[in-house]
Amino acid sequence: MDLFRENWGQNKSWMPDMPAVKSPESNICRCRTTYVGTRPKVRYLKSEAMKGETILMTGATSGIGRAAFIALADMHPNIVILARNETKAKDTMREVREMTGNSNLDMIACDLASLDTVRRAAAAFVASYDRLDVLANNAGIISGKRTQTADGFESIFAVNHLSHFVLTNLLLDKLKASVPSRVVVTSSYSQFRGHMDFDDLMAEGSFRSWAAYGQSKLANALFTFELARRLAGSGVTVNCFHPGAVRTNIGSGMGRAATLAYSVASRFLISPERGAETLVYLASSPEVEGITGKYFFEKQATESSPESMDQIEAQRLWEVSGRLTAKWLDPIN
Ligand SMILES: NC(=O)c1ccc[n+]([C@@H]2O[C@H](COP(=O)([O-])OP(=O)(O)OC[C@H]3O[C@@H](n4cnc5c(N)ncnc54)[C@H](OP(=O)(O)O)[C@@H]3O)[C@@H](O)[C@H]2O)c1
Predict the structure, then answer these.
(1) Which end of the chain is least crowded, N or C, by CB within 10 Å?
(2) What confidence tens digit (pLDDT) does each residue in 281-294 have?
(3) What is the dihedral of CA 250, 68, 318, 128, to 10 degrees?
(4) From ligand 1's centre to the CA of 275, what distance in Å?
(5) Rounded mean pLDDT of 99-117?
(6) Mean predicted lDDT score pLDDT of the chain
(7) 57 forms bridges with which residues in the sheet?
(8) pLDDT exceeding 90 applies to what percent of the chain?
């Protein structure tokens, strides 16, 4: 705890997702938040700003994604969530419907740890929806132990990067047919501590949780900037962001000591509603119309990590990701 206070006071951070600079207060884009103690009390404002648009989100059943789901639903677009737990997804949709009055909510089953299900989910979306105005690649994990997906990839890299690489590529035609459209990627300040280890992308040699997580969040940023370059002039914009250090379930896959440290520190973390502000802003605000290839924090475009700006590395990641996932990438008819 002392370490936390000390580092916070010195503008340093011991938490990989905590930016070095303490962030100023800011307002939620589409909803008003007041704080009762440390618990946010959110009142959603009625608006139909996104009526007729279609949003596809991952990671909408918890934390930042759930808060963004509520705030976006309040603007009355159609929202489709990809979720691995059907019961949790249905409960979340019912709550969001009750809170916002938006009944145009749908779910498609998808475990991002299985590229077969990612492909099936993309195909189901393409078959059912005419347009895709916003794709929010938000889901993410960290785990204390190295695990592999059924496809044979290290789980953090697979869920945080490869699944979204495949999903986005399979939905590109839909995005292009819906211009102006947007891709929003939840990266992290952890990218500054990440490094792409192309000799051991799957951490088979040695595994450290935060290094694997940092690499995956750096991959999110490299992917964002490379996709933005590839889509330049197309009308599809691509941006990523750091949500802040947010009180969510992300630490639940870590060991017991880390979970305890996280729960002690959690009262210093921001609420999911505040953490979702930049996602909601990038998905909905006219202010970012046409802006692409940027990294945002607190609704401001800001400097991304030096490694994320390396175009050769971004191309290399794109090619390697394409090779690793080639059998799932055939265009959907
Ligand atoms: N919290 C922070 O301080 C922080 C800081 C920087 C960046 N981020 C990023 O923010 C994003 C959201 O994380 P969070 O903090 O809101 O964590 P969270 O509360 O744990 O939410 C993660 C979401 O991802 C979903 N998910 C995880 N694995 C999945 C899988 N295999 N298939 C389908 N969905 C899966 C979860 O589904 P279930 O509900 O089924 O578990 C949940 O909806 C992540 O990309 C994370 O890296 C978080």
Answers:
(1) C
(2) 999 999 999 999 99
(3) 120
(4) 12
(5) 98
(6) 88
(7) 81, 136
(8) 80
Ligand 1 binding pocket, CB closer than 6 Å: 17, 58-59, 61-65, 84-85, 88, 110-113, 138-141, 159, 186, 188, 242-243, 245-246, 248-250
Question: How many domains are there within the chain?
Answer: 1
Q: Which domain holds residue 298?
A: 21-327
Given strand 181-186, what is the order of strands in its sheet?
105-109, 78-83, 54-58, 134-137, 181-186, 236-242, 294-297, 300-302
Nearest in space to 166 (alpha carbons), one of 238, 236, 227, 207: 227
Query: Pairing between strand 39-44 and 105-109?
Result: unpaired
Which CATH number goes with the domain that contains 42? 3.40.50.720
- The answer as to whether 332 is a domain residue is no
* Top-confidence residue, 169 or 41: 169
Annotation says 44 is catalytic = no
Tell whether omega for the bond before 19 is within 30 degrees of 0, i.e. cis: no
pLDDT, position 14: 32
Ligand 1 centroid to residue 178 C-alpha, Å: 27
Q: Which whole-number Å values give the CA distances from 275 to 23, 89, 162, 317, in the listed order? A: 11, 20, 24, 28
DSSP symbols for 14-46: SSTTS-SSPPPP---SSEEEEEETTEEEEEEPP
